[in-house]
Amino acid sequence: MKKIYFYITLLSVALFSACNDDDFNEGIAPPQTYPQEEPKVFGSFDVDLTPIFSSPIVMSEEILEQEDLTWEMVTINKYPELEEGVSIVSYVLRLSKSNEGEDFIELPLIVNENNTLAIVVEDLNDAVIDLYDDATSEARMVYATIYPSIMDNGTTLIYPEPVVLGEITITPFALFFDLEPVYLTGNLINNLPEWENSVSGIGNGLQVLFADKSVVSAAVYTYTGNFNANAEFKLPVKAGGWDPSWGMSNGELVLANGTGNISGPAEAGYYTMTINLKTQQVSFNKFDEASAKNYATIGLVGDGSPEESWDDDTPMVMVADHIWVLANAEMKAGEFKFRANNSWDDNWGAEGSADMPFGIGVYNASDNLQITTSGTYYIAFNDLTGHYIVIPRADLP
Description:
Blueprint: H1 2-19, E1 46-49, H2 51-54, E2 57-58, H3 61-64, E3 70-78, E4 86-96, E5 104-108, E6 110-111, E7 116-120, H4 121-132, E8 140-152, E9 155-158, E10 163-171, E11 183-186, E12 207-208, E13 210-211, E14 220-227, E15 232-236, E16 245-249, E17 252-256, E18 262-263, E19 269-276, E20 281-286, E21 298-302, E22 309-315, E23 317-320, E24 323-331, E25 334-340, E26 347-349, E27 358-360, E28 362-363, E29 369-371, E30 375-382, E31 387-392
Parallel strand pairs: 2-10
Antiparallel strand pairs: 1-3, 3-7, 4-5, 4-8, 6-7, 8-9, 8-10, 11-12, 11-15, 13-14, 14-19, 15-16, 15-18, 16-17, 19-20, 21-22, 21-25, 23-24, 24-30, 25-26, 25-29, 26-28, 27-31, 30-31
């Protein structure tokens, strides 16, 4: 009884004191304190790279043609011990050029039942191309790190200890390059024969799209020119045949038989058309033609040209504004350049090795373009952008 009475007396004193405080403290809640939470301690993963990723990887067309192909990347030997209410929900692979990781690309990993994490092979190939902004098939070093995500009492968080895999060497495969060219026909390009689709029309009414290896994706084609308003076009993959063609179906760009026409810009003028066959998108951006030069002639010059001379040019034919073509050029094994007006004031070559059969000529370059095998070539050149095509005529389907 004394112990209980003592508590009641203390409570009475507290209440009496509170009632006699100044009005200044009226309505202010007394300070509250909470016990400090103990910091959570997370453990580490124990993983091993699978044999595929333990050695340099070389992608190929045969590998990428296997739809939805996945490769197991790591085996999880031991999971960290997690506190109650915490669970692992997903894993993301981060690829960067170095362990500093300023520029990176993230890909989801697939969790298998055998304690392995797998990745979609095509996504990995594309990520390496995108990371280096280069569609060439060269060995690339990527720095790989896995970031698990956890669910902590209803809140999703990035696991505080990423799984560092280190350096992996991957040679990507540029799927759309080194394959058959893509043609363009319709009434899009000003002053060209309309809807020409025959072998004899290659380079005139049936244009071959330029391709740009400097862009991120290996499936990007391009064409800069003077376009008609509200025009339509299609992209056959074989001269003289309409099926299959890249065209529109249900509002999407697809490669199929019987596709519909693709629409050009609403206003006439100079545009750069970009066609991404991988993402199935077509876009048009205005091009400032006023900033470009107009040339009386564009020709080939060099010991690899039909004239086999560094003094005498082989003239090309301007089939449309700023578009020059030699549909059947007898080239020799050797070097050459494009040049304007039979003068060295304006010429296009290379800096180092040149891309073939698609590339971009370097203006007033120190190095030359090169033909490795004599033969008949289809050659096209766009003096607005420097894009060129140098391809054996036998390789045009």
